Amino acid sequence: MTRRYGTAINCMDGSVQGAVRKFMKRKYGLTHVDKITAKGPVRKLSQKVDREDLRHLYWMLEVTDMLKTSIENHGSRIVAIAAHHQCAGNPTTRKRQIKQLRRARRTVEKIIRSFRLNFEVKIILLWINDHCMPREISSLPTQYFAAIA
Ligand SMILES: [Zn+2]
Questions:
Q1: Domain containing 77: what range?
Q2: Gap between the terminal Cα atoms of the chain
Q3: 101 alpha carbon to ligand 1 midpoint, in Å?
Q4: How far, in Å, from the CA of 43 to the mean position of ligand 1?
């Protein structure tokens, strides 16, 4: 069987790993999904990197390195960024997490641009609800996106 890799940047939370892997395999016909994890990664990816914050800086370097391997060595052409309901690593509202997801996309786009690839890599944003069901945020109803204070 030909290997088709994708990449998921997802929370370390064990309850959401399998759901994202299954979703991506099914929807995008993948055989393998590389995982890049952290506690609530969208929070980190949506924040500016403070050069004094070495933990954040190192994590960003690790993410960059893992993305590069996943894309250039494994041939991934799709990267999911996921956030989930009641994330212990990012204890904030769903609306704020969705806002963070959008900022995270810009960060990941910037990282991928730095690889100077001559092909496209698709980025999808996933919200994982209280039933552990991932959905692309482009398919969510509008009440998910109301302005936040
Ligand atoms: Zn989490």
A1: 5-145
A2: 50
A3: 13
A4: 10
